[in-house]
Amino acid sequence: MDKVDNCVTQENLERIGRMTLFNDILFRNVAKDRDVARLFVRLFTGREDLDVVARDTQYSVVPVTGQRGVVMDLHIVDDEGSVFDFEIQDYRELHLALRARWYHSQLDWEHGPESGQEYDSLPQVQVVFIMRHDPFGQGRLLYRVRKEAAPGLVYDDGSHTAFMNVGAADDSALGRLAHDLVQTRAEDMYYDELRKQVRHYKTTKEGTKRMCRELEEMKMETADKKARMIAENLLKFGMSVADVAMNTELDKAVVEELAAKKGK
Q1: How far apart are CA 185 and CA 179, in angstroms?
Q2: Can you give the pTM of this predicted structure?
Q3: What is the mean pLDDT of each run of 10 residues along the chain (264 residues)?
Q4: DSSP labels, 213-235
Q5: Which of 59, 106, 205, 242 registers the highest number of CB atoms within 10 A of its CB?
Q6: Strand-strand pairing, 142-144 and 125-131
């Protein structure tokens, strides 16, 4: 039995118990649920009549031109064809506005008109960054970017950007969501949709096993990346492929591949 199969350890269970929805592993599992995706759409639009027709976590858009792709935390299409990207941001972003611009460009590329279609086939797109810190320092719960062609003249191109500061949670509908996102216990959450899924992944046998497996897979991926970095450095210093493989415990074929790249 390998390490991933034998993953339900006390250490992993305690780590899962400390997680909030700002944790990538917990969020991507919870947000797969249709009711959770619908909750996000309805809260950020203020419309209770909207439903979800497509949803994906860790949704990847890779441009064919070789440019930088994006991986979206929660990608949703509603029953009116509008597109949403929700990003859970646990760290300070140096170029947040530019990142938002790039995500919009990728969503337009992904959902844009096909050959022969008019531009009005472009969907409404909303990119929302949900953040632990206040990106603008004004103490607001929600910042919505407003575009104007002239003072008082709204310029609506169908692309919308918003930033939620969970540190300013209040008793509004969105404020309660902000509150729920930073809780470690399901019973402390307001929304049933989130409470149900968080309880599943933190307390049931099936849910905790899945979480533990993903934790172990993440650890192994991190260890592999570290071993490859060490191997690349050892190769630069002239160590043989065989010795690098022995010291890093990487397969010889992997080290040979790294050496071949180094020689290009």
Answers
A1: 12
A2: 0.82
A3: 66 93 95 97 96 93 79 95 94 87 92 88 95 95 95 94 96 97 97 98 95 88 78 82 81 83 64
A4: HHHHHHHHHHHHHHHHHHHHHHH
A5: 106
A6: unpaired
